[in-house]
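Single Protein Entry

Contents — chain, fold
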Amino acid sequence: MNLRQLALAVTLLINGPLLAQESEPDSTTPEDEGGFWSQFIDPDDGKLDMSHWLIDNAYGFLPVPIIISEPAVDDGLGLAALFFHAPDADDPPPAEGKFILPDVSFAGGAVTGNSSWFLGGGHFANWKQDSRRYIGWVGFADINLDFYGNDDLPPIPGGSIGFNAKGLITNHRFLFRPGKSRWFFGGEYRYLTTDVEFDLNTGIPPIDNLGREDTVSGLGVVAQFEDLDSKFSPGRGLEAEFSYRVNHDTIGSDYDFEEFTWKLRQYFRFGDKTSLSWRFDGVNTSGDVPFYLAPFVDLQGIPAMRYQGSTTATAEIRGGYDFTPRWSGLVFAGAGRAADSFGDLGSASTRSAYGAGFRYLIARLMGMKVGIDVARGPEETVVYLVTGSSW
């Protein structure tokens, strides 16, 4: 699911609930006499740690700050409210060695530096020992972005043109796991309405189908593979996702087009301190794709929608080193291409980015890290605040 073109920050809100994972159980608890602040200290090493705070508050209200570090919207801040539902009394306990996130309802909003904003909420649920998953959300976004042109338009004076897109967005996905496999299969429905307005003081001719409210409605199928030691900040394992979606007037869409998306990630550990990971992502579209949903090269250091095409492919590699059990550093480099068709990717221009960062293990029992990345793209250097995995 890639709706950053309309609501870049919405993904930051919904990524949190997609956390059903496996981890080693831990019976250690903070000392009762330590009071409130003892929940933020790991009794094993005496370091700052959020594990017990998150676990002890797993069934109830939890406020979560949203920090947006996306140059396309000039960064931003917001707040999400998560409510973790207690399991039913007749639910069987998790299998030994497994941690399954309970059902989560969430709502929140954010505002960015270029006056973009969004409000939204939704629900994540799983059944039968995480063999069934559902994630659904709805939101309203008012986003200001830049469009850098395509082959259907003359060159844009100054290289880009600003536009505003606002509308309602909702997405629903249901997955099931056959038996005890690592695969999930299911379907997805996306619906959005958009009202797009351009700043046409740049001298380019008007663009068709703009200045009106359009509807995009699509049905898709999804296949996922998960074999990770942590969904929050993976250190070992493989993750893959393949999805195919059809948007058509028979299901209420003003645009008829198809989308095929793939995501591959693999994580390795070498000894106790060294890690290596890679990803390979891509999107292939065909038909009447609205410009704000066209694929783009998605790398840290490159603003969203900067390099668009009907087809994109992106590869990235990261290397890390643990200086202490809590602190680690990493370096990364990636490259992507955008082209008018899959066959043209081989001759398309390569856009690259590289950088470095650090992580702190903020929740040991869940394997969750936080940190900062500094990435250099073709045009600028960008600082990103990262919670969990940057992928």
Observations:
- The longest strand covers residues 132-147.
- Residues 370 and 387 are 4 Å apart (CA to CA).
